[in-house]
Design goal:
The protein has three helices and twelve strands, in the order ααββββββββββαββ. With 276 residues, it is α+β, with helices and mostly antiparallel strands.
């Protein structure tokens, strides 16, 4: 009886213990689920708080950004459309308006001068002369290369042409014009880039900025200053009055030159460019 009772008591005790363990296991499993759920909820809450704070800080930074852009100086160049650069005339200083007016006047004057020069050039191109004497050109025009002067025994430029002709040969006006000077000495004429020493000389103005020069003439000049002449009129005779080009050394000839106006002065040009 004792053993049986003892065995039965042990069996009952073991059964109770096993049941308690199963209950405890079930409780632990159930509670573990809730613990894991709680931990997950805590993590979600922490993440939500972090994100919320981060978004709040970003919002504050964005709110401050416009103010910083306004208060901070901008050192970068700014492109502005040209239309915005125009200033109303009423707001311009008087000095600027005056300068603009002067600039317009200068442009108009320059345009007139260019137009006048263009007309003069066209007229010059169409302007033609005749040979003042019949003869061979013994010395050509050259302003750049030096030619030897047998009379002066030196090298110099020759700013005209020498036309061979006997002393006493008639010298004719190369074109219509007006006698502006008759030179009987070696004086220098202001405004004319002419060398002296060509003896008795007649200068005729043909208009359009062109003048013709006849040097080494004889004493018997047929025109005077102010006379109007026609092409082919006799103005004098070939002589031997030039000390720069002596006829006894270089042969009897007429020194013929052409002047063209450039600005306020006349400069020598090649006469053969005008001889037809």
């Amino acid at each position: 009886m004792y053993k049986m009772g003892l065995f039965g008591q042990n069996y009952f005790t073991g059964g109770v213990v096993m049941g308690f363990k199963d209950n405890l296991k079930r409780i632990f499993q159930r509670e573990a689920f809730y613990v894991v759920l709680f931990v997950c909820l805590c993590l979600v809450a922490v993440a939500a708080v972090y994100v919320s704070r981060n978004n709040s800080q970003i919002g504050k930074d964005l709110a401050k950004a416009p103010q910083e852009r306004i208060t901070q100086p901008n050192n970068e160049p700014t492109l502005v459309e040209e239309d915005n650069l125009e200033t109303p005339v009423s707001q311009l200083p008087k000095s600027n308006l005056q300068n603009n007016d002067k600039g317009k006047q200068t442009d108009k004057e320059q345009a007139k001068q260019d137009k006048s020069t263009s007309k003069s050039s066209n007229s010059t191109a169409a302007f033609k002369m005749i040979m003042p004497v019949d003869g061979e050109v013994t010395k050509t025009f050259d302003k750049e290369n030096l030619q030897y002067s047998a009379t002066l025994q030196q090298w110099e430029t020759h700013e005209g042409i020498d036309i061979a002709a006997d002393v006493g040969t008639e010298v004719k006006a190369a074109a219509d014009g007006k006698v502006v000077d008759v030179i009987t000495d070696d004086r220098i004429i202001e405004g004319l880039n002419l060398k002296t020493g060509y003896g008795i000389t007649v200068i005729i103005d043909h208009g359009n900025g062109i003048q013709s020069v006849y040097g080494n003439l004889a004493q018997d000049v047929k025109v005077k200053k102010g006379d109007k002449v026609k092409k082919g009129d006799v103005i004098g005779f070939v002589g031997d009055t030039s000390i720069r080009e002596s006829s006894s050394i270089e042969g009897s000839h007429l020194h013929f030159a052409v002047l063209k106006k450039e600005g306020k002065e006349y400069v020598t040009v090649n006469p053969l460019d005008f001889i037809k």
